[in-house]
Amino acid sequence: MAEVVRVGLGERAYDIVIGSGVRERAAELQGRLFPVTDSRVEELYGSWLKSCFGAAERFVFPAGEGSKTFLTVEEICRAAARARLDRKACFVAVGGGVTGDMTGFAAAIYMRGVDFIQIPTTLLAMVDSSVGGKTGVDLPEGKNLIGAFHQPKLVLIDPDFLNSLPEREIRCGLAEIIKTGVILDAELFAALEREPASLTGHLDPCRYTKIIRRCCELKAGVVEADEREAGLRAILNYGHTFGHAVEALSGFSISHGEGVAIGMTAAAELAVARGSLTRADAERQRRLLEAVGLPVKLPREYSVPAVLEAMTRDKKNAGGRIRVVLPEGIGRAGVVTPEVPELAAALEAIHA
Ligand SMILES: NC(=O)c1ccc[n+]([C@@H]2O[C@H](COP(=O)([O-])OP(=O)(O)OC[C@H]3O[C@@H](n4cnc5c(N)ncnc54)[C@H](O)[C@@H]3O)[C@@H](O)[C@H]2O)c1
Ligand SMILES: [Zn+2]
């Protein structure tokens, strides 16, 4: 049985359909479909893609964040043009967040905008990036600096794709799931605390379907309230201001999820110092992150001033001040603009 979450955005409203086997619904989609995927997903699921989309031309790019560029978007659009796709075409992103962000962006600009559908295959894409309409590419000067808001027409989430996903990628998704619990839903957080060990290793598809559904509902609620990040949507960046800085400093050897986990731990320290989070709740977060194998310490080799310097380069800063999302207990969050010494103290507190 598939579950459906509706993203209520008026004329841009769409369904997120979640359940084991829902990928087969892609075969029933009508119209000129243009599937886009990466080399790894093609390797694993090429024969399924072929059976599902038939003779439709599909675009395959080399897997990895390094492909998330203007150049690949140009190639996607040129392939679409060669296939004589017109404005009624529908791009279909089959893959992780890189595929989704880039295919969505190509769909936003091809012929001034065509439809697109998301079929996420990583946990991160299932619980976060495939929902909400943020699309884009990276520049050498920074990640996600180019983009557009372009909502998909449909999101098909099939947790069976997770069976082939490496453990480290599962943990990346778990960082975003734990983030969602801390900022929006104490019950989700408590559910994760029960048997955290079973969230990794052999995955329980039923449990994951429930978790993914809840994350999609919560994200849909935030996007409905603030589609273009004028305010509330910024709380989804919890852990990300510190996290992006650590990720960048490591030359991306620290993954996004690992960076976010370290970032959430630092943010929780700051929240405890400011009195918006109890030490006991900060400890609950730390224990859960650790239990699923995510890091909670700033590695020795990164100095606090270096992290602070990298944070000031983050594009989400308003007028020079560093904005940080802080939990207000478990299940609620707000945005603050702390002084640099407070940020430094929070980082010192988690330094290995
Ligand atoms: N748009 C948004 O709101 C939003 C939110 C969060 C993150 N993002 C973006 O998402 C990207 C990260 O997404 P990601 O972590 O999914 O990265 P990704 O798309 O690069 O996927 C990670 C790796 O997993 C492989 N893979 C995908 N599905 C697989 C499967 N089922 N089995 C085995 N391997 C599989 C991919 O080939 C890739 O090598 C970043 O670019 C980030 O900026 C966007
Ligand atoms: Zn993230």
Tell me what the structure shows.
With 352 residues, this protein is of the alpha/beta class. It has 2 domains: 3-164, Rossmann fold (3-Layer(aba) Sandwich); 167-349, Dehydroquinate synthase-like, alpha domain, CATH 1.20.1090.10. Helix content is 44%, strand content 16%. The chain is built from 12 helices and 11 strands. The chain has a 7-stranded mixed sheet with strand order 1-2-9-6-5-3-4, sandwiched between helices. Zinc ion (ZN) binds next to α9.
Number of helices: 12
Please report which band the strand proportion falls in: under 5%, 5-15%, 15-25%, 25-35%, 35-45% or over 45%.
Answer: 15-25%
Bound molecules: nicotinamide-adenine-dinucleotide, zinc ion
Summed up, the domain count is 2
Q: Please bin the fraction of helical residues.
A: 40-55%
Overall spatial form: globular
